[in-house]
Amino acid sequence: MIQKTYSGLGTKIDLSISDQANPEILPQTNELIQKYEDSLTVNRDQSEIMDINHNAGVKPVKISVPAYSIVKQAVEVSQWHAGFNVAIGPLVKLWKIGFGGANVPPKEKIATALQDINSDNIVLDDANQTVFLTQPGMELDLGGIAKGYIADKIKEFWQSKHVSNGIINLGGNILLVGNSDHENGLWNIGIQSPELKRGQDLAVVTIPESSIVTSGVYERYLKTDGHMYHHIIDPHTGYPFETDIAGITAITPTSTEAEIWTSLGFFNGIDKATQMAAERGYQVSFIAVYQDETIRISDNLKDRFTLTDSTYQLI
């Protein structure tokens, strides 16, 4: 495979395409990533999403078709009120976990921010492609879905360029394109150990073309006064979500879906999340790694999952 590594989206980006593909596709892909990051980021003062945030409580903002598409998906899932919340921005900015100035905010500021994160106060206008945050102080944050959306757009681009197979890896958000070079066409993907550096795996899962996204409390955190505060904020309390899950992996057809269901798996546990997915017509498989070093997996992965670290126990 032809491989290139880039930096973007706040992470390391690894792109691999089949040897038969045009190698110029990789720098073109990096330009595509930069274009979407410029549009969707909330870590700069100017972007399409920041235009929406700057006009909270003021007026609806018209945005591009791609930006409107991802915002609409994120809002619809947020309005399930099951943990995933695109309006979480005020709390993310308050805690700053994973960014400079990370801190434990005063209770009063958390209480204030909780008043500004109700996703029901987001008004979408499909006809005019506008987004309106009806309350001053509201902020969208696409951090829980943007990498997945961008990965899906990369796959569309690669397919338009007749890339037969490849791997899109946006900082651990993996989207597989086509069949692998193995005789059975399946891919062997490592599952990140919550206790080790990225790239050190506790298991391997063998899957067809799909997306596999892992998130964990180990990724970004703040240590202070003997406590560890991770980056997954509970929209009900305003504090990092209390869970016995150390890391969770979702396997889905698209990367956007994998981002969504990784989050929903964290907040609801894999049993309830599996039920939610079935009720809503989503295809999702889960791998949950718990802080007591046990692992649970979806039934349809039982023959595709190989534990490689004897520290962990499959239950």
Structural description of this entry:
This protein is an alpha+beta fold. It has three domains: 1-40 and 145-166, no CATH class; 48-143, T-fold, CATH 1.10.3980; 179-314, ApbE-like domains (T-fold). The chain is 30% helix and 27% strand. The protein has helices at residues 25-40, 48-54, 65-78, 89-95, 107-114, 146-160, 255-280; strands at residues 2-8, 11-17, 61-62, 122-125, 130-133, 166-170, 173-177, 187-192, 201-207, 211-216, 221-224, 227-230, 245-252, 285-290, 294-297, 305-307, 313-314. A hairpin with an 8-residue loop joins strand 8 and strand 9 (201-207). Helix 1 (25-40) runs antiparallel to helix 6 (146-160) and helix 6 (146-160) packs across helix 7 (255-280).
Mean pLDDT across the residues is 94
Helix % is 25-40%
Strands side by side in the biggest sheet: 1-2-6-7-10-13-14-15-17
> Which class of secondary structure composition applies to the elements?
alpha+beta
Number of domains: 3
- Name the CATH superfamily classification of the largest domain: ApbE-like domains
What overall geometry do the principal axes of the alpha carbons give? Answer: globular
- Tell me the distance between the termini: 36 Å
Q: What is the correct CATH architecture of the largest domain?
A: Roll
Could you tell me the radius of gyration in angstroms? Answer: 19 Å
The helix tally amounts to: 7
Strand-residue proportion: 25-35%
GO molecular function, one term: metal ion binding
InterPro entries: ApbE, ApbE-like_sf
Keywords: FAD, Flavoprotein, Magnesium, Metal-binding, Transferase
Protein name: FAD:protein FMN transferase
